[in-house]
Write a structure and sequence with these properties.
By secondary structure, the chain is mainly α. The chain contains 4 helices and 2 strands. The chain has a two-stranded antiparallel ribbon. The model has no long low-confidence stretch (mean pLDDT about 80).
Amino acid sequence: MIRGDRVVVTIDEVCTYLGIDYMDSMIEDNIQRIIKTADYILKGAIGENYPTDDPRAKELTLIIVNDLYENRYAESNTLTGNTRRLVDDMSLQLRLELRRNKNG
């Protein structure tokens, strides 16, 4: 994923991490969307200018991408604990950001 001129994770890195050896347009679209979502999660959790060159940020991105990719078809009542936490965190981040934008 490219933010400005910096790379957080590439599609190739995600495919390697997920063990995907065949890419079609649907897989690529899903991965692109999930990488973007992971970036927004980290912006909300760490800050807008989180250090994309830090290996911890890259690993966090890959962990988030993996969980979202593996659970992309899960129904809300079958989500794993980790995914449920991600959903709750994203919801809280969005609410806080909306409140901050409304007040600022």
